[in-house]
Design brief:
Beta-Lactamase; 6-stranded mixed sheet; 19% strand; elongated
Length: 404
């Protein structure tokens, strides 16, 4: 799940004013719910949720933690009212002895309970948590709930506290809190999905960038949803390719119509319609032959939750005259080659002669011939043309240089 509420661990919201009494009659959960849903993809809205909660429920202390279900380890925390020293003390030691929260784990989840429901109040007043932590912090009454996080080994703890001079959390206030439960559950579900989709979109974009090809992700109207750096270079360097107002196109009207048709078909195929799954084009604007391949894809742009994983088309473009860049270190791993053998294989793929390779490597032609024989054995080829074809289509062309 990662950081559910905050990024980077701990966040604080400031301290609510001291006060007493119950204000349950004046609580407007509607505004709190609004901020909660905003916080699905706007972390700043969680600040507003906390501030309004502290005021509405006359609650000067609050702590929201993501915990491991297995060992109750705190993975992420957001708080208000505790301050740096109080939070450090809790996170450093007292969370392991938090009898109130541990007691909540034994009760049915997704429901708020006043602290005496999770741990007998007379016994609580004798605990280390109360005498060494709560008393110095002026904490007395608490209410909390545990929520399971969907598709996760973690849970979400929502706990709030009042001071000794305030009223305990009574049945009416707890009932008011329980009205938030379905919205907190939905918030956790949406936040979980948002995190998954953002990570998935990021992974897809990283994968596309490793292809070292110009790749455009488009909708059925040729609107560009994402493009790699190489795609931007193509737009800048090739007069035939256009991206005005982030709409992909060709200057040649006939080729542009064909591109539009193939993209519509690819998007339709991605949607599950009985459509041809894309196709191929070739463009020549005087700068050399440009190969174009259109294929169906489902794409979830980062930040999209409700319209995620939409049917789309991937448009791959490559200058046919540009040799593929082969990563020698990846080639070494794939075919168990020595660094020298991998270097020779790459240079052969680039079209260099044996004499040129020997001169570059400062060895004799005979030495290069001997190493090429070993290359044939390791790669299962028997002649130069087969070796060049194998290297040219190897997945080493998709691999980034390995770290030294």
């Amino acid at each position: 799940m990662g950081h559910l509420i905050s990024k980077g661990g701990v966040r604080a919201f400031g301290t609510a004013a001291r006060g007493g009494g119950s204000v349950s009659g004046s609580i407007d959960n509607g505004e709190l719910i609004n901020f909660l849903y905003q916080a699905v993809d706007e972390p700043a809205a969680m600040d507003e949720f906390a501030r309004h909660f502290a005021t509405s429920y006359d609650t000067p202390f609050g702590i929201l933690t993501v915990r491991s279900k297995a060992d109750f380890q705190v993975l992420d925390v957001t708080e208000w009212g505790f301050g740096k020293a109080g939070l450090e003390a809790y996170m450093g030691y007292y969370y392991q002895h938090d009898v109130l929260t541990i007691g909540l784990m034994q009760l049915p989840h997704s429901k708020f309970y006043p602290h005496q429901k999770s741990y007998d109040d007379d016994d609580f007043l004798k605990t280390e948590l109360y005498n060494d932590f709560a008393v110095p912090m002026e904490l007395r009454y608490a209410v909390g709930a545990i929520f399971p996080i969907p598709h996760s080994a973690h849970c979400f703890h929502f706990g709030v506290c009042r001071r000794p001079n305030q009223d305990p959390y009574g049945p009416q206030l707890v009932a008011k809190l329980d009205q938030l439960v379905p919205h907190l559950q939905q918030f956790l579900y949406l936040r979980s999905r948002f995190g998954e989709l953002t990570a998935r979109a990021s992974l897809m974009e990283q994968t596309l960038s490793r292809l070292k090809l110009a790749v455009f992700i488009c909708d059925e109207h040729l609107n560009i949803l994402h493009q790699t750096d190489q795609a931007e270079d193509i737009v800048q360097s090739r007069s035939e390719v256009t991206a005005r107002n982030k709409v992909l196109g060709f200057q040649n009207s006939k080729k542009n119509s064909e591109l539009s048709r193939l993209v519509r078909n690819a998007v339709g195929a991605s949607r599950g319609e009985d459509q041809p799954p894309g196709g191929v084009l070739r463009i020549d604007d005087g700068g050399g032959l440009l190969e174009v391949v259109i294929t169906p894809i489902r794409y979830a742009p980062p930040g999209e939750v409700f319209n995620s994983s939409a049917p789309s088309a991937a448009v791959f473009m490559r200058n046919a005259a540009t040799p593929r860049v082969i990563a020698p270190d990846a080639l070494s791993i794939l075919y168990d080659l020595s660094p020298s053998e991998a270097d020779i294989a790459v240079r052969m793929n680039q079209g260099l002669s044996l004499m040129q390779i020997a001169n570059i490597r400062r060895v004799s032609v005979q030495t290069v011939r001997s190493q090429i024989k070993t290359l044939y054995q390791k790669t299962g080829t028997s002649r130069q043309a087969d070796l060049v074809a194998l290297v040219g289509t190897s997945l080493a062309g998709l691999a980034p240089p390995l770290p030294s």
